Amino acid sequence: xxxxxxxxxxxxxxxPLRNLRNRYIQGLLTRKDFESGIFQVILNDYQxxxxxxxxxxAFSDYLCWFYPRLKRAIDAYNDVGSSFDAYIYSxxxxxxxxxxxxxxxxxxxxxxxxxxxxxxxxxxEQILVKAEDSFKPVKNPQxxxxxxxxxxxxxxxxxxxxxxxxxxMSVRKLYGLLDKIRKLRNKSDDKIYxxxxxxxxxxxxYVTYRKQLEALPKNSVQCEILLERTDKAxxxxxLLKNQLASINHNASNQQVAEVLGISKGTVDAALYAIKQKAxxxx
Length: 282
What we know:
The protein is mostly helical. It folds into 2 domains: 3-100, no CATH class; 105-279, no CATH class. Helices cover 75% and strands 0% of the residues. The protein is built from 12 helices and no strands. It is elongated, with a radius of gyration of 31 Å.
């Protein structure tokens, strides 16, 4: 490969990278200074790369990603063939394709992630809005408190601020009770969190494969393979979603009793009374 094939016009005569390499070989530069010098020369020449003509910061991000490859490229170079400058610039250009491909894939995955998060956030918000719309003065504070602690995972900060006065207690005290129930539920919540993350991961795979399919020619071998992966990801997502739905998100009656310092029987009786009132429409 000729030097003129990959080097920018302003560097074809001076060959600054070769000069840096010669100084390094002569022991005038440390390895760290040698690598930093190469990095700086390429960074200052960012306008020669069409993808980064007007964005030096974006090119700097790319070079930071490329840096480990730069170290390997230096060790792999020999004096046969192209100049050191041409060789390094060819490596910078070659890795651009991989970098852009990874960035595109990451954007797809991030899009899927936030799409999934948005669906969950919207569902929780709807539940809380319904609860707040139907909020009435509390006739039996103990029953209401037991129900609130039982469904702790749906309670927002705003809801706590609204509920505390109606329960006849300070916001700080109600936060304290919720904190206690969350600590008791720590292991169970970790399991739910892990299950939810697994479900999201399959959803990301499904969306990623689906978007990649749009760019592939139909009836191709790659398309067939990706279709199979897409179906598997969809089935796994559905399975994990069903498994998550079967996990009990509520605090147990024993845990609620422990936090309030009352017997489990009292909690059982209170929840039974609430269910009966609900059946009767009261």
